[in-house]
């Protein structure tokens, strides 16, 4: 895992040759018909590469038969996405994602468990016309624990989305996430709007992960909101296969500071183990949101590469 962190750090702390490459890449997108934003904002662009550490004080693994295991979790994650401009209106997204999690059970009679996860995200983005954008992605995942009877378990996440820009400051989003695994098949609606009050304040009222963003300058950003949980695990009753569950989320406050160029450092803290709205595809049941702010406090530290677009 240290190798992955070093590779990502070497990329985000880009030497001149990498910096020139990213400048050419950003210029190519700027000259295309693809519009990421029509208004001026202090908030940086989404990270295209990152490396981070998360600590969850209390987490639960769902065994699928009504039982659960409690543990603390430490996770190191690295990932990157590289967009390729295919035409003036189309972009192909290809990336990689690697995560290592150490789970320390609260029960003394259970051993510490390490889980390795790998994924290869692939996506497509199209600017249909002046106001409409559409896209989709697939993320095949594999998980493997270090226990004696553990086997690789496979999972497929994905989704399809559309964005309608109504004004320079207001846009709407529509779509659906899905998660297919050996443990469960889930679907999450993706619906809402994002409104930019001014160059400092933005409200992203998009379910299932709303957020309020405050950027007092081009070098500093605060975010209060919801994000996918990093400790939402499911384990089959034989104890040899793991998979993620996308219907859990974290509620946290983060502060992110520009270190140099496109490199940002983020510190976040909050609570996890919150349950979002989802649909069980197998039986059609709707799982309602569940909030318990007394469980799963967490802290995370991330190094992000956020290019200017």
From TrEMBL:
The keyword Signal applies. Residues 1-19 form the signal peptide. It comes from the Bacteria. Keywords: Signal. This is Transporter. It comes from Gilvimarinus xylanilyticus. The lineage of its organism: Bacteria, Pseudomonadati, Pseudomonadota, Gammaproteobacteria, Cellvibrionales.
